[in-house]
């Protein structure tokens, strides 16, 4: 059997489905008995519980979801010092590095990491650090990065890039996020 080629996968764009697509790959991997880790760069400190977090509790240690963010940055009533968000994102990146080199994971998902690389008027982590991570990752490990506005350098390094394009979104008609679909 040919050795596995660990892919760098990017789900970006304005339409819904980036995290959902990554979770789809996680489900497939778990079905094969692979070990999957999701590091969420913004989620955390939010009042809602994501379905994937509940599932990870049931499938531990095969499936782990770590919410290392501090929630919304500068929007939705965020009053935390900006430094707190920066520290959290940096810690998430350090942990990603440690877990990645442990060699224990078949798939690591960096959920919303693209936002941490620069969104609106803020930036939480350095692009060079993420590129270094991608360059040095274990060759058989798959990695998925999600979030709008993937930097061109990340797109360049990736093996697979899909851009979600919004055709319709219920939010535009005032329909709020739905359990099981949005969280
Ligand atoms: P999902 O997690 O549902 O796959 P996503 O990862 O593509 O969505 P994000 O950019 O991470 O989307 O956005 C986080 C939240 O914003 C999600 O709850 C999602 O439902 C919502 N959202 C995503 N795309 C849109 C859109 N085009 N308009 C309004 N809300 C959106
Ligand atoms: Mg998402």
Q: Any overview of this molecule?
A:
There is one protein chain. The protein has 183 residues and is of the alpha/beta class. The chain has a single domain (8-165), classed as P-loop containing nucleotide triphosphate hydrolases (Rossmann fold, 3-Layer(aba) Sandwich), CATH 3.40.50. It has helices at 18-31, 51-59, 82-101, 113-116, 127-136, 152-157, and strands at residues 8-12, 36-40, 63-67, 107-111, 142-146, 160-163. β2 (36-40), α2 (51-59) and β3 (63-67) form a beta-alpha-beta unit. It is globular. It starts with 7 loop residues before the first strand and ends in a 20-residue tail after the last strand.
Q: Spans with pLDDT under 50 lasting ≥5 residues? A: none
Order of helices and strands: EHEHEHEHHEHE
CATH topology: Rossmann fold
Record field, number of beta strands:
6
Distance between the termini: 38 Å
CATH architecture: 3-Layer(aba) Sandwich
Strand content: 15-25%
Strands in their spatial order, largest beta sheet: 3-2-4-5-1-6
Rounded mean pLDDT is 94
**What is the count of structural domains?**
1
The biggest sheet, with number of strands, parallel, antiparallel or mixed sense and barrel status, is: 6 strands, parallel
**Rg for CA atoms:** 16 Å
The protein's oligomeric status is single chain
Bound heterogens, unique: adenosine-5'-triphosphate, magnesium ion
Specify the overall morphology. Answer: globular
Helix tally equals 6
CATH class: Alpha Beta
């Amino acid at each position: 059997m040919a050795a596995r080629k660990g892919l760098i996968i990017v789900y970006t764009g304005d339409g819904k489905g980036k995290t959902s697509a990554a979770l789809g790959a996680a489900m497939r991997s778990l079905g094969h008995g692979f070990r999957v880790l999701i590091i969420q760069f913004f989620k955390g400190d939010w009042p809602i519980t994501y379905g994937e977090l509940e599932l990870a509790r049931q499938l531990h240690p095969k499936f782990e979801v770590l919410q290392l963010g501090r929630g919304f940055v500068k929007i939705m009533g965020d009053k935390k010092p900006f430094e707190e968000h920066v520290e959290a994102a940096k810690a998430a990146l350090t942990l990603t590095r440690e877990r990645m080199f442990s060699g224990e994971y078949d798939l690591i998902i960096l959920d919303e990491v693209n936002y941490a690389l620069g969104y609106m008027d803020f930036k939480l982590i350095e692009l060079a650090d993420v590129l270094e991570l991608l360059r040095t990752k274990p060759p058989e490990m798959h990695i998925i990065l999600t979030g709008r506005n993937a930097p061109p350098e990340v797109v360049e390094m990736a093996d697979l890039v899909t851009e979600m394009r919004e055709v319709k979104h219920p939010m535009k008609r005032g329909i709020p996020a739905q359990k099981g679909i949005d969280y």
